[in-house]
Amino acid sequence: MLIQTRLTFRTAGRGSREITGEVAAQVRAAGIGCGIAQIFVQHTSCSLLLTENADPDVRRDLETLFGRIAPDGDPAYLHDAEGPDDMAAHARTLIAGASLTVPVAGARLLLGTWQGIYLWEHRTEAHDRNVVITVMGESA
Amino acid sequence: MLIQTRLTFRTAGRGSREITGEVAAQVRAAGIGCGIAQIFVQHTSCSLLLTENADPDVRRDLETLFGRIAPDGDPAYLHDAEGPDDMAAHARTLIAGASLTVPVAGARLLLGTWQGIYLWEHRTEAHDRNVVITVMGESA
Amino acid sequence: MLIQTRLTFRTAGRGSREITGEVAAQVRAAGIGCGIAQIFVQHTSCSLLLTENADPDVRRDLETLFGRIAPDGDPAYLHDAEGPDDMAAHARTLIAGASLTVPVAGARLLLGTWQGIYLWEHRTEAHDRNVVITVMGESA
Q: Which one is the CATH code of C2-139: 3.40.630.10, 2.60.120.460, 2.40.110.10, 3.30.930.10?
């Protein structure tokens, strides 16, 4: 059994917003008893983020660390056509990843207690971002 | 055909332990002729690690590099409720990844000769860690 | 429905080469109406790279950044049996990832307009690299 949907999310510029509820709703609707949910961002400057859902400071600290790993406006960048955040966004996307697979059981995501799924915008401007969710497995 | 299991591993604190054998045993038991094995850690402060299985110095050097990318007790961290390794562990988990998919054929993981799968504890203390393994595909 | 193939690519030493066309050809041949394509590199010193396909400077800048994150010949490395690029290649592989899953619909990869799939060689010498592609889903 297989259900595939594409959702579009408006981001507020750089930062992460939780999408666990939206992904869980697709999994529930698919009614998969046992299987996987594959989540995929169709962009090269925003990523998925699977991290702790309790303290928002975790995601602020991740911004700080990613700002060191892939700084905006680094003089070494050759690719800067869209501004100082352009190349930084591509690099952060690669490191965090645009593709995530989560197991499913009983029509629910098998996440740990403290795990949340976030859409992580790496550009400074707001964007519409497409996320493809594919739920595969055996019927409940 | 689909088999899903949850295994619990006791870690010895920061460091990696091989779990290739345990994952391979699930794949063998599933008897999948052709498909995929999806491995997922239900935590935000330990990750999976797919790396060379011959020289343990590789994994020591990865600790060194990750210690630079996400140092313990960095003064910039806002999130430090559980100690200096708390935020470092979240960041390392994100970069290494908590979710891994490996192809399967003939009821075996299609790993390369030098690839091993490790559970990588990023907290300094020992923990019990849950790993969900989902094997999907066609019967042998 | 499920199709699995192993392709071998000759790299030209450190750098990335696009393999989107080769992966898309497998997906087309599989004739999957809806599902996923799982791509897996059977090595610990080269990775997959999902990034922008328009400006090759993006991939040059990624080399620059990865050269800082995991430099060649770092004096802290214990593992250097195969030269100064040996450990750097293992670390870069881990960070970029050797496993990638992409949704499929209508026998096509559901990539965004600017997304390309690359095989990223991290060793300085040329190598033959095995890539396993597994396409799973419902018939078209």
A: 2.60.120.460
